[in-house]
Design a protein that fits this description.
Blueprint: H1 2-9, H2 13-51, H3 56-64, E1 66-70, E2 75-79, H4 80-105, H5 112-136, H6 156-165, H7 172-196, H8 203-221, H9 227-242, H10 248-258, H11 267-285, H12 291-310, H13 314-338, H14 345-351, H15 355-381, H16 392-401, H17 406-416, H18 420-446, H19 458-469
Antiparallel strand pairs: 1-2
Length: about 475
């Protein structure tokens, strides 16, 4: 009754409720990233300390532990490092694909007028670091220049995690802009990995992979909704793409993007059927002690539960179920497996004489914020509009936090370099960028003014006080 009274007092309550229903999944995503960023940092520190401790051989032995699957007709075997990078990270990119689908469908990327500034800014934030890296490594040789895409990346967990820590200083428009930046950055990473960091393409395996993806779409079209069926086909598709020369994470992002947005049951159908089930529930609840009444209550509740499940879009359901696993397990495991760089004083000094280290470091710490802010300014000058409440100081804060590449940068570096020393130099540059860009990003958000909360209408405020008093 109180809620109905409040809705009558405030005619905008319905619109506010619909807006809340829209932003809640995004809030859950950001909040999970905030907690995941802490675990990510802990895993990275553990890897660094372990790799530079007297027990570093145990760290290396752990990563070299071999695990395999042999089904007689198909077998795969690899080190623990392989299973983390080639298997677990497929799930990471699958969740990224889901988030891309959300943003393009109903998020910031669905409105060209709103998305212009952050999209152009994100492109500038990728191109300038690339140019800086190639400029710095100009005389280092072709193999060293293979890491050109490393400083293009932004770590989603750190970026959203730091923004969430300063939520009171980040207006909704700035949060939406940051989310758009990282999503466009992720799209760029997926394209780069698919186009430039894949091996010799085996056409037959790639055709098989494409056929399995098409089979999933046809199966869904014919009414199959079981996630076990799609997971089974997806695993077979992963096995096919593993030998195709295209990196498996590309498949993960593609399947996430192709996940259907519309739920099996429309909201109108849900409301209509739910009312019928509630009437059945009330009828049984009048005499729940009898077998007939009990069966009516249980049947209506089970049917209502299934109906509610079918009314949730697949994108939301999968993201809600998988994102905690990715944030709390996959990404920390990746950090543990890839951040363990040996930092002996002599080797560390030698790394900072390497153009690869400096190319990555300058590309991330300088290229990302400068490229992002400059491109956004150009977009606005040409007619794009910044979201409400977004100042240039806020855009600069986003640019600073974009300089943290870490997870995705480490991933691209592992694909770019087969030479162990070049890989080590790139990792040192990535870690140094984290040490520099992290505090700068925190300072950037600290310098933002607190977001002023809009006052409630007098009637709503009085009603809220009355409810609190009761």
């Amino acid at each position: 009754m109180i809620k109905r009274a409040l809705r009558r007092l405030d005619p905008r309550a319905g619109a506010r409720r619909r807006f809340t229903n829209f932003v809640r999944p995004v809030q859950e995503f950001v909040q999970t990233e905030s907690a995941g960023a802490v675990l990510l940092m802990v895993a990275a520190v553990v890897a660094l300390v372990w790799a530079n401790s007297p027990w570093h051989t145990h760290y290396e032995e752990l990563l070299d532990v071999h695990l395999g699957i042999d089904l007689a007709f198909w077998a795969v075997e690899g080190s623990l490092h392989f299973w983390v990078n080639e298997v677990a990270m497929v799930l990471f990119f699958f969740v990224i694909g889901l988030e891309i689908k959300r943003e393009i469908t109903i998020g910031e990327l669905s409105d060209p007028r709103v998305m212009a500034a952050p999209v152009v800014g994100a492109i500038g934030g990728m191109l300038l670091p690339l140019a800086i890296f190639l400029l710095v490594t100009q005389g280092a040789g072709a193999e060293a220049r293979e890491g050109w895409a490393i400083p293009m990346a932004t770590d989603v967990a750190f970026a959203l995690g730091i923004a969430t820590l300063f939520a009171k200083r980040v207006p909704i428009g700035l949060r939406a802009m940051l989310l758009t930046f990282v999503i466009v950055d992720d799209i760029g990473t997926v394209l780069v990995v698919a186009l430039f960091y894949s091996g010799d393409v085996q056409v037959d395996q790639l055709v098989l992979t494409a056929s399995l993806v098409a089979l999933m779409l046809v199966t869904y079209r014919f009414g199959v909704r079981s996630m076990f069926v799609f997971a089974g086909i997806g695993i077979v598709a992963w096995a096919a793409i593993l030998d195709s020369g295209v990196h498996p994470t590309t498949l993960g992002a593609l399947l996430g993007f192709l996940t259907p947005w519309r739920p099996p049951v429309s909201l109108e159908g849900f409301v209509r059927t739910a009312r019928q089930l509630l009437e059945r529930f009330r009828a049984g609840d009048e005499d729940p002690e009898t077998p007939l009444g009990h069966d009516q209550v249980v049947d209506s509740l089970l049917s209502l539960s299934e109906l509610s499940s079918n009314a949730v879009p697949h994108v939301d359901r999968l993201e809600h179920n998988l994102h905690p696993w990715v944030a709390y397990l996959v990404v920390p495991a990746f950090a543990l497996a890839n951040a363990g760089v040996h930092l002996d004083p002599g080797g560390l000094g030698e790394a900072f004489t390497s153009s690869v280290t400096w190319g990555v470091l300058i590309g991330l710490v300088v290229g990302k914020p400068v490229g992002l802010v400059a491109a956004t300014w150009i977009a606005v000058a040409l007619g794009a509009v910044r979201p409400a409440g977004v100042t240039w100081r806020g855009v600069a804060a986003i640019g600073l936090v974009a300089g943290i590449g870490f997870t995705v940068a480490l991933f691209v570096g592992d694909l770019a370099y087969t030479d162990a020393e070049l890989l080590r130099q790139s990792k040192i540059g990535i870690l140094a960028a984290l040490v520099i860009a992290g505090p700068l990003a925190i300072l950037g958000f600290l310098l933002l003014p607190r977001v002023k909360q809009a006052p409630l209408p007098d009637a709503i405020a009085d009603a809220a006080e009355e409810v609190t008093a009761q």
